[in-house]
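Q: Hi! First time doing this. I have a protein sequence and I read that you can turn it into a structure. Is that right? Here it is:
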Amino acid sequence: MKSKIVLGILMLMCSLFSLTSCTERIDAGSEGILVNLYGSDKGVDDVSLCTGRVWYNPFTEDVYEYPTYVQTVDYPAFTINAKDGSEFKIDPTISLKIVDGKSPYVFKKYRKELSDVINGTLYNYVRDAFRIQLNKYTTDEIVSNRDLVEKAIESYLSKSLAKENFHLEQLTSGLTYPKTIVQSVNAKNRAVQEAMRVQNEVKVVQAEAQKKIVAAEAEYKANELRTKALTPAVLEQMWIEKWDGHLPTYGTVPSMFKDISKH
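A: Yes, that's right. Below is the predicted 3D structure, encoded as structure tokens:
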């Protein structure tokens, strides 16, 4: 009889335990947060870090799971004004992760799912980083020193997120220049290309002219050399080679031919 009573008590205790308790397994790459729902701190009295399989009372406790692996977030685009008023479009993508072991601190501050924190609160930090940094530079400075400006934004954002227990892995700004700047740059490029084309054509014309000058000089020198080479003896020899042996019938006979005819 007693054994039946003990067995009944054990079964009742097991039933009560099953009704008042739940279990959850924390996946690898995540941190579990066990929260006491009935605390004095506005409903959160005790927040602790837990891993593996967790048993908890669903009536008085809750478990949140925060991933600790790197997440890539593509935030909605927004616009920011430069120091001189020009409007830049920003379409940011960031890779970040929660600092290991800091999940309870993040939850206790925001009391939200991690995705809500990343897509809400941290998005505001991203916007502020671009706004604060781009407001320091003029349009020309941003265009001319884009890499330096983006590094300044990334450094500022990294420090801001670190204070919230997040580590920034990478930032891609997706920064787009104002249409007026794009049009100006395109016009400048076209002008540079046209100037280079004209310059090349001028070089071609100059080269052709130089060729003609060189050719004319060479022809002049050749003629000069030929003229110098035509001495009286050379001319006489040329006349002899071309003479057919007959003296002119009429007119005065050159003395040279008279001398030749005597021989």
